[in-house]
Design brief:
alpha+beta, two-stranded parallel ribbon, 4 helices, 56% helix, globular
């Protein structure tokens, strides 16, 4: 991995964390809107997305915008894992 990829990865991680922490959007469209904002802000067009602290998995599922993304959600909370698994199957 070259320096450019490392910088891109670090910026992507920071933007995803900042946007998710700010809770962009509201209502039932919030995860889809957050995902759109994250993908637009980062300029990422595909690849591996790891969503750390994925909660109920709705944002994680929304980040899977198309088949060019492989998205994994990580959570240490059992209720969060169950909800995320359910969200990933829809």
């Amino acid at each position: 991995m070259n320096a450019r990829h490392v910088r891109t990865w670090a910026v992507t991680v920071m933007l995803v964390a900042a946007i998710a922490a700010n809770g962009a959007g509201a209502g039932s469209d919030a995860p889809a809107e957050q995902a759109r904002q994250i993908l637009e802000a980062t300029g990422v067009k595909g690849g591996l997305i790891v969503h750390v602290g994925c909660g109920d998995g709705r944002l994680t599922a929304a980040l899977h915008a198309n088949e060019s993304y492989l998205v994994h959600g990580l959570s240490i909370r059992t209720p969060g894992r169950k909800a995320a698994r359910a969200a990933g199957r829809t």
